[in-house]
Amino acid sequence: MKILTSGERVVRCLLGQPIDRLPFGVGLGWCPWGETMERWRAESNNPNLDVARELGYEPGFALPALESGPFPHFVSEVLENTGDTVVSRDWRGITMRTYRGAQSMPEYLDYPVKVPADWEKLKEERYPLDTASLDRRVTQDWAAFRAQLLKSGEAVQVGTYPWGIFGTLRDLMGVEELLVAFYTEPDMVKEIMQHLTSLWLALWERVATEVKIEHIHIWEDMSGRQGSLISPAMIEEFMMPCYDRITTFAKTHGIPLISVDSDGDCQELVPLMMGHGVNVFFPFEVQAGNDIRTYRKTYPQLGIWGGLDKRVLALDFQAIDRELQKIPDMMKLGGRFLPQFDHLIPPDVPWGNFVYAANRVRELCHHNLSAS
């Protein structure tokens, strides 16, 4: 068959259509933590190391410039600096404490929304839906974007981290407060979800008038090792009406891919969300119990993106090779698979190990495996 553009290859791969070969280096699971990048620059003796360029990552999706969250942004500022810790507020309005030299997530201290009055004020000031406000959120130079697409061959994606029906509410309220609010303030939770959906659909409609959209992405991060943070019944009641609106938009505009990103065990989420139009999932964290070969056998119509255990990258080459056997296994089971490690690459991974793994994955991707 003809050689596909990078965008055609990724889209056709996830849809289970014939491809010339597997895409290589596409997705979050090929990116290092900041601390990892520092280590790799030192170990490679290259202070200007560009991992994507060095290893030959291929482009996949291009995202137009949209303001999908609070707009105008909150003022980012340092509130307290003790030397060992820094308390700051970011552009989303989240207050957090970070520890110098720590390779861990920040300690989250405060969020913009606690009660319905907070949301009403925030909605009026930073989430209005009038035409002028929506137009200001689209900051893309469309002529430049179309030129980029012609050069790169990428497909167009709308939606990205940190925007999701559940995920964004985590950032507005904090996860504990949100989980309680499903019981104490259900009307507020539903109203925020629907309002955010209206905002994103209005922005995506503006994109659709300029370019062809191939992919809608929804970031949720709503599972842990024990499974979903809320029950399937709650997902159906609170979230799926929003997903149905997104699916209707996708059908109206001929958008073939709707993906969801959630860490943790996704056994409850996958079938439920597939029933509402989602056809791609990632990253399938192995340490949470996800086995992509089992998912492939159970859900043959699902695009699977990820599922390679990042932890093996800190071990030896033999362990890496054993994990990468999943790639030919997945193709034999029917394809619809985009190889990627199951999250950002952590700091315990040596540069030499990662180069070895990337080269092996590239070899497997270039074996002209067919997803047909």
Largest sheet: 7 strands, parallel
Instruction: Tell me the total number of β-strands.
Output: 13
Number of helices: 15
Q: Radius of gyration over alpha carbons?
A: 21 Å
Head-to-tail CA distance between termini: 12 Å
**Biggest sheet, spatial arrangement of strands:** 1-6-7-10-11-12-13
- Broad structural category: alpha/beta
Low-confidence stretches: none
N-to-C SSE series?
Answer: HHHEEEEEHHHEHHHEEEHEHEHEHHEH
Report on this model:
It is built from 15 helices and 13 strands. The chain has 372 residues and is an alpha/beta fold. Strand 11, helix 12 and strand 12 form a beta-alpha-beta unit. The protein is globular and about 55 Å long. The model has no long low-confidence stretch (mean pLDDT 95).
Task: Characterize this entry briefly.
With 372 residues, this protein is α/β, with parallel strands linked by helices. It contains 15 helices and 13 strands. Helix 11 (269-274) links the parallel strand 10 (257-261) and strand 11.
What features would you highlight for this structure?
372 residues, alpha/beta, seven-stranded parallel beta sheet, four-stranded antiparallel beta sheet, 13% strand, globular
